[in-house]
Write a structure and sequence with these properties.
The chain has one domain. It is globular, with a radius of gyration of 17 Å. It is mostly helical. The chain is built from 6 helices and no strands. The relative contact order is 0.11.
């Protein structure tokens, strides 16, 4: 149990370190870096490389945005096996629906309690 927590912590931290290095050492915008993380998760998930990382690190690999990309690729694979070609269009949103819903819900709740203001 403790080893699982340690593995999740260091793998998730390593993913964050990569993101921080990209922010500090490149001219990439944060939006492009976030997109790169999602796309890398999709590609690594489609190639079967990300699943062993998820098995090893658990939430340390699924919580970062690369884990969102992995979830999308896994959902598309599953939907294609069940529905064929149509699964390409339905699998991603079906597999990520819970995470998307949670993000919308918590964002809405945060907006109720936050006070908007112009940046100075």
């Amino acid at each position: 149990m403790l080893l699982d927590l340690i593995n999740a912590f260091w793998v998730g931290g390593l993913i964050c370190v990569v993101g921080q290095i990209l922010i500090d050492k490149t001219n990439l915008t944060p939006a492009r870096i976030l997109t790169a993380f999602v796309v890398s998760g999709v590609v690594l998930g489609a190639l079967g490389i990300y699943e062993p990382i998820v098995d090893f690190a658990g939430a340390g690999a699924t919580v970062p945005l690369s884990g969102f990309g992995y979830t999308i690729s896994r959902g598309v694979k599953h939907a294609v096996n069940i529905s064929g070609f149509l699964g390409i269009f339905t699998g991603a949103i079906t597999s990520a629906a819970a995470g998307i819903t949670a993000a919308l819900l918590f964002g809405f709740i945060a907006s109720i309690f936050a006070k908007s203001a112009d940046k100075a």
